[in-house]
Design brief:
It holds the Pfam family DUF6533. It comes from Lentinula raphanica. Keywords: Membrane, Transmembrane, Transmembrane helix. With 288 residues, this protein is mainly α. It has one domain. The chain has 8 helices and 2 strands. It has a two-stranded antiparallel ribbon. The chain is globular, with a radius of gyration of 22 Å. The N and C termini lie far apart (59 Å). The relative contact order is 0.13.
Amino acid sequence: MGLKPEASEELQIVAYVTVSFLALFIYDWFISLTQEVVHIWHSRWGVIKILYFWTRYVPFIVMIIAAQERISSMCNHQTLTTVFAGFIIGISDLILMLRTYSIFNKSRRVLAVICLSWIVLSAIATWAVFRFSSESFSSDSSTTNSCFVPQRSKAVLIAFFALLGGECVTSLLTAWKTLDIYRKSHFGQALSTIYHEGLFYYFMILPTEIAIVTVFLLSPAGFQSLMDSPLTVLHSILCCKLVLHVREIAAKRDGEDEDEDSDEVLPAFIIEGFGPSYMYEKRRQYYV
């Protein structure tokens, strides 16, 4: 039995969005490759490097499978790719959590809050997948492996809210630390902290996920997979940009240490860093 015209149009829109964000993902990889080679490939292996490669390259697998299925209109692995995309994002969130832990001078209390929230939210998302995935598979089979799903997936909905909850925890901690620095010092130090630590990426990721969850809730049921690709791609891009930004700033800082006695003319607009001891060993200047 064929699909209704409205359903076919919805499937086409989802396919266009999926292919478009795959193209965006590839484009961002090309323009970031130079920074990646300099600051990631040539660095020593560690947790951040492993998480970076996971966040940068594993989403390619999901995006390619999703794009191929959308183009062929035969989604044999739709539920699997959606769940795997959520798993990728959940692991990628560890980058944000480790950065937040570092911003708080490796506070054990903050580490406990972050770990507890990640474990609880991951457990909720995992429970939802095992609890409601059978419904998704039965829905897929009833439509002859079509990409059109007539009802919302409870597993996807709960997973979205779990991811959003994790982002809220890290973003609120980051915002609180920024306000604390502002109260104890002045606007210049708070601004230099936001720039130096790449905190503006936190404030970009959270609104993005809120918008995606809102669209998921308000859109017709046929569009329930519309936000899978934007969420996977934008989360990966912003997390990788955060890592590259922090390492690039660290490299510039090391370069300034080597040339601190030179007579170079400084740019007109600079911000002097009076950050806490865990950020700077002495007063530094950061270019904005």
